[in-house]
Amino acid sequence: MFETQLLETTTTTGNNTMGMILNFGLIAVLLVLMYFVMIRPQRKRQKEEQKMRDELEVGDEIVTIGGIMGKVLSIREDSILIETGADRDKIRIMKWAIQANNSRMPVDTKSSDKKKADEKKSDEKLDKKDDEKK
């Protein structure tokens, strides 16, 4: 009788240990998933925004986070001077307040490559139809 109780105790302890390992494994998988779903894309966006701000040049049309549109007149280390509107008002803003550079809109290369491929396919189909008619 004592032997069966001892045997049952060891198997129960083994199951508890396995359950704890599975729980920790599940938590680790969820943390890795959260990293790839939330943190990594945010860092990528931040790097792109910083690159856009670093590549500003005099004469670029920008939009601030407050919605003010203007043309860059001068650039300093952490601030820029912009000219807004027909009144030619000048405003000094911090670089981190720039939301977009309208002068350099990014080109979506994937969609343009797809359009080129579609055009090539349609041209090939037309050429085949022309050859069949002859």
UniProtKB/TrEMBL annotation:
The transmembrane segments are: 20-38
Q: Where is the composition biased (Basic and acidic residues)?
A: 110-134
Membrane topology value: Single-pass membrane protein
Q: Which one GO biological process term can you cite for this protein?
A: protein transport
Q: Does the keyword ATP-binding apply?
A: no
| UniProt keywords, alphabetically | Cell membrane, Membrane, Protein transport, Translocation, Transmembrane, Transmembrane helix, Transport
The UniProt entry lists the main location of this chain as membrane
Task: State where the protein is found.
Answer: Cell membrane
The record's annotation in SMART domains points to:
YajC
State the InterPro entries in the record: Preprotein_translocase_YajC (IPR003849)
One Gene Ontology term, aspect cellular component: plasma membrane
Give the family, as the similarity comment puts it: Belongs to the YajC family.
- Matches recorded under NCBIfam families: yajC
Question: What is the recorded name of this protein?
Answer: Preprotein translocase subunit YajC
Question: Organism, per UniProt?
Answer: Solibaculum mannosilyticum
